[in-house]
User: What shape does this take?
Amino acid sequence: MIRHIISILIENESGALSRVAGLFSARGYNIESLTVAPTEDPSLSRMTLVTRGSEDIIEQITKQLNKLIDVVKLIDLAESNHIERELLLIKVKTSPEMREEIRSLSDIFRGKIIDVTPTTYIIEMTGPSEKLDAFVAAIDPDSIIETVRSGPTGISRGEKGLHL
Amino acid sequence: MELNGAQIVVQSLIDEGVEYIFGYPGGAVLHLYDAIFQQDELKHILVRHEQGATHAADGYARATGKPGVVLVTSGPGATNAVTGIATAYLDSIPMVVISGQVSLPVIGSDAFQEVDMIGITRPCVKHNFLVKDVTKLAETIKKAFYVATTGRPGPVVIDIPKDITAPNIKVTYSYPQKVSIRSYNPVLVGHKGQIKKAVDLLLSAKKPIIYSGGGVVLGEASSELIEFTKTLGYPITNTLMGLGSYPATDNQFVGMLGMHGTYEANMAMHESDVIIAIGARFDDRVTGKLDLFCPYAKIIHIDVDPASISKTVRVTIPIVGDVKPVLDQMMELIKENKNKIDGVALAEWWNQIRQWQSVNCLEFDRSSPLIKPQYVIEQLYEVTKGDAYVTSDVGQHQMWAAQYYPFTKPRRWINSGGLGTMGFGLPAAIGVKLAFPDADVACVTGEASIQMCIQELSTALQYKTPVKIINLNNRYMGMVRQWQEFSYESRYSHSYMDTIPEFVKLAEAYGHVGIRITKPEEVRPALEQAFALKDRTVFLDVMTDRTENVYPMIEAGKGHHDMKLRVATGTSTDRELA
Ligand SMILES: Cc1cc2nc3c(=O)[nH]c(=O)nc-3n(C[C@H](O)[C@H](O)[C@H](O)COP(=O)(O)OP(=O)(O)OC[C@H]3O[C@@H](n4cnc5c(N)ncnc54)[C@H](O)[C@@H]3O)c2cc1C
Ligand SMILES: Cc1ncc(C[n+]2csc(CCOP(=O)(O)OP(=O)(O)O)c2C)c(N)n1
Ligand SMILES: [Mg+2]
Assistant: This one.
């Protein structure tokens, strides 16, 4: 069950997202995460979908996605050299004696403290999902008020790209 | 030309070349019905239930190759159409369904007769559109027909809010000659390298078999398939959906394959070393248990839909493309290299196949005092000289029609294979008869199936579509009863009905002719009488042997080589007629 990151260029139409989500539930494929936003061409959206499955399943997933009329193009990023990033926002309780420790931990992971109150920090961090996992694991669970993650997005390296 | 939305819909359909629209009115489509009233080019067929509209349009599409067109109102009209849409979807039938929707401003407010038709149909359409702007209406309709009829065909829904068809809002109308959709470009011509490899493999085969399906019918490639098969001299089997695309009377044809296919077709598949699948999708009714499927074969697969390839069975050489050009491409290479065929091996292979054929797997008890359903179909074939359009419902009668009526032309055998929709047969027959008023159209059905769309008898009278309903009345949901006999120790749980209507009276009440027969010797004369009544719909209620089963059969979890054959005695235990 290898993890695959599928990048999809899709018509920016109402209902397009539900076609993708519906396909996954109807056919019993799993979605680990899904991000979507319009591209520089407002008629198109770019979706990044993380899924797991055997080679046969991934082949069917990409074929079935391609079959959706709204899907313009897609690539399986896992097949080539690519960069993957995820955004994490995390709100932590900060007792006076812990503030310094959390700050340096955030520095080590190249996080940014973007909001400070007498009792909390909000830290912003991007990176591959494993790095974010590692950071979250390094923080005392009792001090975490909430976390929010965007799910990974990705882009392939070099001159090749996913465009019309 | 300035037209309002309702007029645009009607004019677009006319400009698209639509002859018939099958529909049922209601609030959300009243503007449309008013526009239909005010013209007479587009002919509207008023059904008695929206499911009937979809099946009639579907029958029309299967018989003609042209898309079927349906019009239903919002809410219950739309949901009633869903079964027919799904039926067309699973068999890849081109269809355009226009559903009314509540007006744009009230969408999402649980308005009167509002359902999310786009959401409901999403998993059973090729695509669907919600029209939000009257200026996009004509283009959307053009796109719908384009998507429905190209590549792998399928149903497309256009959901039109009532205010889009309002009489007072007029816009400039012109119907686009062509549309292109940047995200939709079906591959039609096959990859040359793959074709070369496929031909090499095919010609090197010692035990080849051609396994072709509905894609040949849909792709209008019957004559190419015949030339291909004749040139190679290889055995050919068809799926249920492919029947007729290769003449069943030809001696290279080994019958249908799969669950109720012939012994020889399934054995040949099992023993084969090279299989070429042409427009067939390795359905589970065809493959039996996947682990046991064709253990010795390398497989070539031609299909216009890449997602059909290696979906359930991994193939050796995939070829994405339209069957017609791909077969043409292959034929060129085959003609040049025909001498590579191993004639000796092929002769041995045919020998083996002839042996399997000698098992006579479709033989049945011909001396029974009861009417055998198989005999009825044989007689139907004789009386119609093998040239009828035969629609069917779903059950044992469907399998017998497929097994005992050797179809020699494509588009003559019209049934719901993928969804297996009871209720399909009668409305489909009406659609066929509208398309071909001079042809013989028979609907082979069962007493359970026919009751699922029986109301369309009324439509048949109104539009003078004299079809012949052959009701193989076994007083059982025979197909269900058969499974219960084999797998549930004959516990016939709810597979019979104690109250079956008197179909003769029912037919008469609807204004048709009803005939009931109980003895084998009545079969032929009754069929002759039915078809002689050219301008009447005839309901032939045939009391058949209620214990008869469909053989041969691959039972659940078994492979092709492990078919259950009819036991030689074959006598019925229940000789009493209800
Ligand atoms: C009670 C019952 C019993 C059944 N028993 C059997 C049985 O014993 N044997 C049997 O065969 N079936 C049986 N069926 C039917 C079965 O469920 C499937 O519907 C059927 O096997 C599918 O046929 P097919 O593979 O030809 O595919 P279809 O559903 O006809 O699909 C056509 C394929 O061709 C492709 N295609 C379409 N157009 C083109 C083109 N232009 N060029 C190339 N490719 C194209 C499509 O992408 C698709 O993959 C039974 C059904 C019922 C209800
Ligand atoms: C709408 C629908 N409901 C249920 C079924 C399941 N089913 C398949 S065959 C069958 C029995 C059909 O009985 P009948 O029409 O009398 O045909 P027979 O098998 O007796 O020839 C049933 C209930 C179905 N295919 N379609
Ligand atoms: Mg019955």
